[in-house]
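Q: I'm writing up a methods section and want to include an example of the input and output format. Could you take the sequence below and give the corresponding predicted structure tokens, formatted cleanly so I can copy it straight into the document?
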Amino acid sequence: MCNEIKVNQNEYEVKMQYILDENGKLAEIPKDKCKTVEYPIKYPLINAFEVFDRVDGTENYWVSNYGRCVNNHRSEDDKRFYEHKQGKCHYTIYEIERYPIKNRSGRLTGEMGMNKTKRETSPEKLVVNKFLVKYNGRFKVWHKDGDESNNWYKNLLTVSDNDYKRLKAGEVTWQELNLEQEYIEYENKATAHAYKVYYAVLARCGDITNKDGIHACYNKSVMCQEWLEDPKAFVKWYLEHYYEVDGEEMDVDKDLFGDGSGMYCPEFCCVLPKGLNTMLANSKKHYREGETPDNVLPLGVRYNSKTNKYYGEITFFGTESTIQLSEWDTAEEAFAEYRIMKVSDIRTMAAKYKERIPEYIYKQLLKVDVKMY
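A: Here is the clean output for your methods example:
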């Protein structure tokens, strides 16, 4: 069983860090090339590659490499943050300059004074100042994809006034300028997050009878030998396939593309928002009379001992009430009705998530069938 193989995360000294390159693809760079965030904050991230660092010259403003700005300027609790408007917009922030206070005799009192100055800026300027290497004579900012609301740091390029005018006039493309643009990388949480997911998945595999908080549905789950022997292979796979759906926890699913074996492996796994993953999960087993293998009912089917009939039950996604379907003489008939409803629910949810999930996952959802057992 996979639990017999012990994997120690500390055996892999994290000297490299995963980042996204300019094309949004996973890349790896030496960790000593990344800056440490000097004033970290706890704020929900878009993904594990997002990093917030404090805006230079301020004490209450932070900007991320995805162009998000937050502040605790007016909060009595310095852990509560206000998120600024994103995209193409204008900001007014307050720079702080502190200085030592002297008494009338010119001696330091040990106290500090403060000068507060308004600064007019924008998301793109804050990102450029924090995450882009500066070049002489290049003070204008160009958005590579043409979307001025996309302030992801690697979508930005600094150019000269003249090049900016040529770009705006359509006389040249940013690629034709052939300008070098280096980006400043900070230490992110991508690798640590992926390892945390890895050990959570590993805990589901093998004998889970004595593991608290792990559902019995994982009792037959196993992890492929590749990931067992090389946790970093899972980390790389996970970060390559990871995406975010606003407001939802993301799960590693083994069933949507799987063959029913319960195997966690690159061929079968995908990342799903918890809402979809929960909807796709089979419900617990129900029995006709007594919990024995011979009395297991089809998925979604219940037995009414008073009428000697079978019926389906379904809770449509996003609702709390369970709907009892029609009663039938056989379990097969009851399942046939349940299957129609369940497949319809899956197709409806696929449409609702279509713009928020990768296309290959959406297309696979359209192929999902509901098996009797």
